[in-house]
Amino acid sequence: MISRRSFLRVSALAGAVAASGASCAAGASGAAARVSGAAGPRPADWSALGRGLAGTLIRPGDASYDNARRVFNSAFDSVRPAGVAYCSTAADVSECLAFARKFKVPVTSRSGGHSYAGWSTGTGLVVDVSPMSKVSYSGGHATVGAGARLVDVYAKLAAHGVSIPAGSCPTVGVAGLTLGGGIGVVSRQYGLTCDVLESLKVVTADGKTLTCSPTSHPDLYWASRGGGGGNFGVATSFTFRTHQTRSVTLFFLHWPWSKAAAVLKAWQSWAPSAPDALWSNCHLNHDPSLDVMVGGLYLGGRTACENLLQKLVDRIGSGPSSRYVATSAYDHAMMVEAGCASSSVAQCHRPGTLPGQNPGGKLVRDSFSAKSHFAYTPLTSAGIKALLAQVAAPGRHSVLLDALGGAVARVRPDATAFPHRKALFGVQYYAHFGGAAGWARTAHAAMRPYLGDHAYVNYADPELKNWRQQYYGANAARLAQVKAAYDPGRLFRLPQGV
Ligand SMILES: Cc1cc2nc3c(=O)[nH]c(=O)nc-3n(C[C@H](O)[C@H](O)[C@H](O)COP(=O)(O)OP(=O)(O)OC[C@H]3O[C@@H](n4cnc5c(N)ncnc54)[C@H](O)[C@@H]3O)c2cc1C
Questions:
Q1: From atom 51 of ligand 1, which residue's Cα is the shortest distance away?
Q2: Model confidence pLDDT, tens digit, residues 455-497
Q3: Whose CA is closest to atom 19 on ligand 1?
Q4: Pfam families of this UniProt entry (predicted)?
Q5: Single pTM value for the model
Q6: Whole-angstrom Cα distance, residue 427 to residue 421?
Q7: Which CATH number fits domain 16-128: 3.30.70.2190, 3.30.43.10, 3.40.50.2300, 3.40.50.300?
Q8: Which of 55, 175, 199, 280 lies at a 20 to 30 A Cα distance from 182?
Q9: CA–CA separation, 301 vs 492, rounded Å?
């Protein structure tokens, strides 16, 4: 089985949950099952909803209820939805929204269930789009159901020799990832997932299914590229521009902790300005022992990759203590980055028979805590020292730095709702086990003087105070206008809702 920690050892684009069970209860997840004073649905109303769906409604008491209600992070296991509707069609979604409007039941959208803050579950009606997971391809365009998991997107597109830039975690849903941006191992070459989004279908609060593109509902299309899931409607499908795949070179280089400052100083100037074809991360690990690793992927051959890596080694002034550099087929590289190098696609799922799961799945859920920053300027020597001190503090935790730049930076900050185009790299403070939230909070606070206040909406952090500015920057005002136009009654509510 692939644990979250072993996954992180090979892939540092992964995330974490920035909330304890207590903050879970404070979120949308903790909203009352119906708005006070409204007549709530009777059991017969729920039964009627279930009968009206092409998909399946699962209610407390049903055999699969516990399995259906649990999201990726087990920190949110105490949340008990009144119903989980596995929607097979946009009409099912529309039916669920009509039910939510009629009975004033809080409604929550769910795709892969990886929201850091647990914002894809709640005590009302969970609208799960997992049954809509078809992936089809034609002439440079992929149409992907909003419930598809990344591992299936990669595998199904690989059969056509194409792919899209997307995240590493195999069970992340395409909907949450795309709507918040979508940072991945080929983003420096091909952009964020939202950058290759050509159109999407969204069921809005009034139950209508809208096709959004540059020419149809352009504002909603703009907001759906980085504005964050759960804000504007329920997406049911995405059409992406694809790229041709090719063989790639994977690398993982380790240095002893005594070289960490030199590695970080060299990496932060090398990685964001490397050729677009080279993506890398720097992983400062204290889990259980101290280690520094630079890993990544090059869209090219091994010799060219080795030449680029040598430039990093030259800047550091000493070679790695261990190194792995090897060519790989593109689809296998995605499985390696997913932590599924020795698994089949079926195994690289959560086990089970519900939509989104696989009977042969081997992946386990996780419980963890994290916070994040974007670095717009390189860390100073004092910043590097402060960061390494946080990593070296007692406990089991990691800091993951993911290179940006390249194609991500060539898009204007206001061209999509994702504003962090000029950031050099992302930073995540990630920890397991008891006390983890405390470490992440301390590390995040310690680095604020050096990194400022920029955060990624896909790494939702319920503790952020000025989250609008941190997630959206100057795009926040336009997002609020789109929200007012498409969900004036605020059917879709999040604790950090636009
Ligand atoms: C292990 C792990 C690895 C990750 N790796 C990466 C990575 O490599 N790159 C990266 O950029 N991010 C990564 N992330 C962050 C990830 O992109 C976000 O957590 C994303 O929101 C998850 O999407 P989801 O569909 O799985 O989650 P969900 O929890 O289902 O949804 C996330 C949010 O979107 C909303 N939503 C879900 N479905 C819909 C829909 N159909 N329509 C409208 N709103 C919807 C939900 O209500 C929720 O607010 C990772 C997260 C984890 C936990």
A1: 15
A2: 999 999 999 999 999 999 999 999 999 999 999 999 999 999 9
A3: 115
A4: BBE (PF08031), FAD_binding_4 (PF01565)
A5: 0.93
A6: 15
A7: 3.30.43.10
A8: 55
A9: 47
